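We modelled each protein-ligand pair independently. The example shown here corresponds to the nicotinamide-adenine-dinucleotide entry; the chain sequence is given first, followed by the ligand as SMILES.
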Amino acid sequence: MSKLRWGLIGGGEGSQVGFAHRAAAQLDCNFGLVAGALDVEPDSARKFGLSLGLESGRSYGSWRDMLNAEKNVMGEERIDLVTVATPNSTHFEISKEFLEAGFNVLCEKPLTMSVEEAKALVLIAKASNRICAVNYGYTGYPMVRQMRSMVLARELGDIRLVVAEFSGGFMADSLDAENPRVKWRFSSKHSGMAAITVDCGIHALNMACFVTDKKVVEVSSDFASGVKSRELEDDNFSAFRLDSGIIGRLWTSGIAIGRTHGLTIQVFGEKGGLSWRQEQPNQLFWTPLNKPTHILERGHPDLHPSARRANRITIGHPEGMVFAFANIYRDLFEVILAKQRGEKPDFLALDYPTVEDGCHSIEIVEAMTRSVANNSCWTKV
Ligand SMILES: NC(=O)c1ccc[n+]([C@@H]2O[C@H](COP(=O)([O-])OP(=O)(O)OC[C@H]3O[C@@H](n4cnc5c(N)ncnc54)[C@H](O)[C@@H]3O)[C@@H](O)[C@H]2O)c1
């Protein structure tokens, strides 16, 4: 039997991210899906929920019906964590209402559409005394956690430069630009202040902050549209500075044909450099100053405890994105359970991405849009 009960909103049949959440949350049998409002269409939502094994009374036609019913469920049956995997513009309202009703929430990125909403959500989470996390799932990769641990252990010495990229050809087909499933992403009415930056770049920015344990303080951004009919950017090249003057570079793009997924993170310190890419997540390339490059393998006993803890299967058997998401769920499981028992969680479980991290990302994107409006001038976050 599952130890904690899980509810899912969005992530319906055919959605991009739904399967990864269902697989990741249930990978360790820590969470069991007990309630859901999985689709914007009520009938599809109920039907899909039943097909996943939900009881008919807990497979809802809308998130509001789910909230109204589930907030009255107490004791053994009450949901311990709700995941919000709906389109961006709904994140704030759904997360806010579930937090206010006393539920722990894992919200998809981007946390909100505006800085005001993001700041409000931080306060609401605090007042509710509940966990509010944001799904920067790539930070769950063992070798990304290894990177962070090596930086924090000063194995690279002082960090000088971080280069983060999330560039692919996913939005490159100009013939597809009028397709409604693509078009909304580039309209300010539906996407808010930015397009590819909140869709993809936000992950890379968060990774830059995660591996260095620093915040972005200043940005200078160039947004452009390779597909000319688009209102919002499909390419963003930004310079930034992190605390302590660390140099940052971001390139995020939807028109980079051939780059497949294209998420990479590189950190350069005075004593060496680290390089990781999402398409080869089990290896981390480590080059000490004046020495040849070493390949650090996920699953090796010499890795830092954070990376060893995030590892699931033996070395040489590839793990991927679902396992990375599963590490976020396992962190949340440990933190929620510890809180319910009045205990302290494993310190390493606290590496999950928080509502504050989600808010910081929105602040960075907002500063980027101000920089763009001001001829790419350096702009404070
Ligand atoms: N963390 C990641 O790596 C990652 C990856 C992909 C997508 N995402 C994020 O996940 C969210 C969903 O993206 P997607 O690509 O799966 O979108 P999608 O359009 O493929 O699927 C959205 C799903 O939500 C449902 N839905 C829409 N409105 C709803 C509502 N009001 N109530 C209940 N269900 C509703 C839809 O019916 C659909 O099943 C977005 O915010 C996106 O940014 C994150």
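The radius of gyration is 20 Å.
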